Amino acid sequence: MGINKLTTLPEAISGLVRDGDTIALGGILSREPIACTYELIRQNKKDLTVIVDSRDESVELLLGAGLVKKVESAYIWVGVIGSGLNFRRAVEKGIPRHVEVEDYTNLAIGMRFLAGALGVPFMPVLSMAGSDIPKYNKKIISMQDPYKGQQVNLVPAAEPDVAFIHVQRADKMGNAQIWGMLANDVNIARAAKKVIITCEEIIPTSEIRKIPNMTQIPYYCVDAVVELPFGAHPLGVAGYYWLDTPFRREWLKASRSQETFDAWLQEWVLGWDTFEEYLRKLGSDRLAKLRKLERDNYRIPKIESY
Amino acid sequence: MSQAYTTQELMVSACSRLIKDNERVFIGVGIPLLAGVVASKIHAPNSVLIYEAGGVGAITRRLPWSISDNATTDNALVATELWRVLGDVQRGYVDVAVIGGAQIDKYGNLNTTAIIGPGKSYQQPLTRLPGSGGANDLASSAKRLLIIMRLEKRKFVEKLDYITSPGFLSGPGQREKAGLKGGGPEAVITNKCIFRFDSQTKEMYLAELFPGISVDEVKSEVGWDLKIASQIKQVAPPTQQEIEIMHKTDPLGVVLGSKSIQESQSFEDYYQTMKTSYESIVLLI
């Protein structure tokens, strides 16, 4: 039998996420866990605090749906296409709800997850000195290091209640292989109290054992595994599919007002029962073309003969 | 006489010439990325581009659209973690970084967090911007820092609402006092000119003009009493070779702007455009 954490996305989210949780999401533009974002919106998981370095849709959509009470972030934007209008509307106008902001840098957020992953309370960084980031963020503490007397900024460990990470391949135990850029996922998985892995493909543990160096997240960090092809759409996954730019442009256009964004959510997030239905709505021809755009240019090599 | 090049091409070329051979270049997308590629194909064949999400030394068949898209690890030397490559900057492995900004002051400090506005607050500003991303990390610790921004009065301001990324802070000695390791900004490349920083006062001054641009034209777009170099240089126009490499790398005009992927188009048009552009790119190894 062995360890089996396979489940469905609705079950994973309803079982592991509570209103008021602090969450983290993996990827950056590539491999952002968009299907998880959709399911959080569908299950109306409220009052979330989100800790991220730099994110696109995975956080923008949550903000537009009014589920976020606070962001602890370095950068929220919609990569390639433009400024995140949901983030702006929430912070500037309090629509659909006011969102508290707490700014860091990418390295500082990375250090927060590293501290969380190591089980230590904080990490020092040299960044942010002299800037206004610590002036507005009282969690950042400047001190002189006791060994060399260097000025450093301390940032607290990030210990999210739940992390969502989308990867290329995983086994049912939860060993997750990531190809391409890793962002901060390796530490996010270790820092979080609970981890939901969604993946393009489930593979047998015997395949994991052939290239153990590819296992970036070990099973003991993971609570649930969901096989979810195209789980990052409309974003990309290295070796699997490229960005669906026309789709991204549509939701970004809709996000110009709360009314039109709500209508977009109704059509593309709330108006189906399973993620497979969402994929059917996109159409197999479209998905095949996104895959071809990627695989004609980028394939994960076979390492069998290494 | 009509120009044989566009402003975008001139900016890419001007930026690329500031990248030296053998440098490890921490690159943002857009103009910096194209500049890095042009440099590596011409005068800096041993330079290596590093992308923030963990891609090092990619030789791509596609123009990366972001610091983290799939293409950033295509034919790469290393695919690692975000904190790791930014840690490498802090450690001192990175020679030069190229970043942009929404607002800049005369000491090269940048704001990409919020235009707070009168009567507003950091928590509820007039305009919320994306935030630092890795810009503060690079501005703090990269040995050399190049900044790319369009020259506009609302961007070149006397006082920033919020210092996201440090330039020379409030003047000489302030970076050292704050404990910043990096060298601070070296040049600001705009669509009209190049600014540099006085070695004594640390203040930004007009150093080089793009062809056909006057000093007054630049001064009218700067929100403080701008200092001017005693001998202003003229930026040399891009060469044919540079322009060719730019267009080979960016056949869709994502950066060069001839035909934007952001233009309204159906999925089928998008697919055909992307497919054709990929087919036209020979792997530039």
What does this structure look like?
With 306 residues, chain A is of the alpha/beta class. Chain A folds into 2 domains: 9-105 and 159-295, Glutaconate Coenzyme A-transferase; 122-156, no CATH class. Chain A has 12 helices and 12 strands. In chain A, helix 2 packs parallel to helix 3 and helix 5 packs across helix 7. The two termini of chain A are 30 Å apart. In chain A, 54% of the residues are buried. The model of chain A has no long low-confidence stretch (mean pLDDT 96). With 285 residues, chain B is an alpha/beta fold. Chain B has a single domain (7-280), classed as 3-Layer(aba) Sandwich (Glutaconate Coenzyme A-transferase), CATH 3.40.1080.10. In chain B, strands 2-1-5-10-11-12-13-14 form an 8-stranded mixed sheet, sandwiched between helices. The two termini of chain B are 37 Å apart. Chain B is globular and about 50 Å long. In chain B, helix 1 packs across helix 2 (31-41). The chains are: A alpha/beta (306), B alpha/beta (285). At the A-B interface, strand 3, helix 4, strand 4, helix 5 and helix 7 of A face helix 3, strand 9, helix 4, helix 5 and helix 8 of B.
Structural class call of chain A reads: alpha/beta
CATH-assigned fold name of chain B: Glutaconate Coenzyme A-transferase
Main beta-sheet annotation of chain B = 8 strands, mixed
How many independent structural domains of chain B?
1
Q: How much helical structure, as a percent, in the residues of chain A?
A: 25-40%
Report how far apart the termini of chain A are. 30 Å
Radius of gyration of chain B: 19 Å
Separation of the first and last Cα atoms of chain B: 37 Å
Oligomeric assembly: heterodimer
Task: Name the pair of protein chains with the most residues at their interface, and give those residue counts.
Answer: A-B, 76 and 69 residues
